[in-house]
Amino acid sequence: MTLNFSVDRDSLVEAVWDEITEGITLTDRSGTILAVNRAFSAITGYGASEAVGRNPRILKSQHHDDFFYRDMWRSIKDEGRWEGEIWNRRKDGEIYPEWLSIKRLYGSDGSVYYMAVFSDLSRMKSMKEGKSFHGAKDILTGLPDRFVLMERLSSSLVRGKRQGESVGLIVLNLNRFKDVNDGFGYLVGDKVLRHIGDRFRSIVNDHEMVARVGSDEFAFVIPQNGRSDRIRTVLRSIGEVFQRPISISDAELNISVSVGVSVFPDDAANGDEMIRNAGLAMHRVKREALLGGYALYNDEMDRDARRRAALEQEMRLAMDRGEFFLQYQPQVLMGGSEIVGVEALVRWRKPDGEVVSPGEFIPLAEETGIMVPLGRWILGEACRQGVLWERAGFYLKMSVNVSPVQIYGDDLCETVASVLKETGFSAERLTLEITENTLKDNGGYLLDIFDRIKELGVKVAIDDFGTGYSSFDFIRNFPFYGIKIDRSFVLDLERSPRSAAVANSVIAMARNMARAVVIEGVETKSQLFHIGGEKTDLIIQGFVYSRPLNPENLPEFVESLRPPVS
Question: In the sheet that 257-264 helps form, which strands lie side by side, from edge to edge?
Answer without folding.
Answer: 209-214, 217-224, 166-174, 257-264, 294-296
